[in-house]
Amino acid sequence: MRTGSSDRTTGDGRTAPDRTRPKGKIRSTLLPLSRALALFLLCLFITILNPNFLKPTNLINILRQATPQIIVALGMTIVLLTGGIDLSVGSTMTFASVVAGYFLTQVSGLPWQAAAAAGLAAGAAVGLMNGLMIAKIKLPAPIATYGMLWIGRGLSFALMGTTPFYGFADGFRKYGRGYWLGLPLPIWIMLAVAALMIFLLTWTVFGRRVYAVGSNADAARASGIRSDKVLILVYVLSGLMAALAGLLLTARMNAVDQDIGEPYLLPALASPVMGGTSMSGGEGSVGGSIIGSLLMVVLLNGMNLLNISSLWQQLALGIVMLLAVWLDVSLKRRAET
Amino acid sequence: MPLKERLKQAPPAIWVLLLMIAFFASREATFLTIGNLLSMLRQGSILIILCMGVAFVRIGGGIDLSVGAVMTLSGMIIAWLLAKASMPMFPAILLALLAGLCLGMLNGFFVTKMRIPSFIATLGTQGIAFGISLGMNKGYVISGLPSSFEPLGHGLVLGLPIPIWFALFAILLSFILLNLTQFGVYVYAIGGNEDALTLAGKPSWKYKAMTFGYAGFMSGLAAIVITARTMAAQPTVGSGMEFEAFFATVLGGVFAGRGGIFETMLGVLFILVLRNGLNLMGVPTYLQLAIIGTVLILGIIFSTIIDRRFRR
Question: Does pTM top 0.90 for this prediction?
């Protein structure tokens, strides 16, 4: 999947000199492994400090904690693949959860499926707005999505005020805390989403177009790809995934508040980049983003096990994200020269 | 450039601003009074100071999303030094300014030396600064500041509140730096064509890092005002300020290599008038967020479209 774009073309679409090819090939085979290795070493390190880490309940707990983050990060991955960015995912998570919570608790006689659908639709609508602003009005993606972040936040406030919605229908809550074949339901949903994403990116025309638009927009246009359609769809997908992550989190917590999604923005950006998705587009994979997410969640879980106050977590996330992006940028520059 | 020429080139935001002023003036009799103007400026002094720093970064071609968090951390530091370490006022103020400057320079280092895109680098710094602000006092507010600190937030000099004097100082300093010094010339040059400046043999990365440093310094200055006004430091006080500062500059028409102090003030006034008018009309805070966000994004879409038509 990655070899098509990562070996030969650089971030801005130029062709790198031939002599760098072997180096590039080694890099592209080693890097995913090195990330898995980093994950393994981190786990080993935490296990030595606190053996409780390896208990199955803790491992399942980690995976369940990672679920919303992985889903948001997969949405972000596909946006990054086109060379864009979606800074609104955290606020979209909140907004979609608030919409679903509103229909679940404030409107009587509505089945929970309809409320969940309304939440997903809200996420897709936010994504559609982002996509239209970026593809049609040609606003820079950071500006458009950062504006959307605040609109989503304002709308959530307007719909809910300051008192959280809580106490949802059992059918809805099952998707947060139910089990199937011994594994929590959210994990199954996450696996299904990941499989769908792999299928979408690897086996469909749309997937090829996403990579094409991201690695060389001019060439994509020259070969007849309507990049605005691809872009709009990509942002809708990102909004939809953010909404899904928000709903799973809401179902698990059995309550929605104003801060439910906001902490997910930094991890959602950092996970794909740590997993090898390039900020300049055209390069990245679903598996990498999942490993990247796991790295961050294991780090946070380790901090919990080692009794480091959760107040410092934002600091750790900021540093981890900066290091990840720096590694990406400097490796890319080394490949270019 | 004479004012008339500037007005001709001014972004469409100015017409929306006049429209808004007319609207609020017709709805609320108290809107167009000196008292309201003063209270608007006093409340807005923090935003004005932050925007001056952000304007330098914008003109230099970057984005700074960390100013709110840097202001928060500087405020926490100043309150900690005054209340917990009982340090005298002036060293504490200097240290807070220094902390702001250092965090800004850290941004500059990330962007120029580590080559991280500026909005990601500053988002990372935002996480770091908020993280330290939350962690350093376990998430609690620091209060119990000495009363000698209070005049900085509430005192009057020559009939004007001291926060407004701080804002005027920031405006004047920024104007001088941007228009009358070599540094200002380089800032515009970086935004216009960074490679050309490098080829001309100038260390353009140094000047670029300095724009971020200046934004950090201004965040430190804003931290003094906000801490003195509330006489306490909250670890989340600056959350959202970076958004207002960023959009004020975008709305005013400050982009890489274009715009200046006048355009920045235009954008700041846009936000201040909108917020003040909504307050006077009694719109609840949570609705204000949605309205301000929507108006800002519509304003930006509107001015981008007009700008593009105009250029064609």
Answer: no
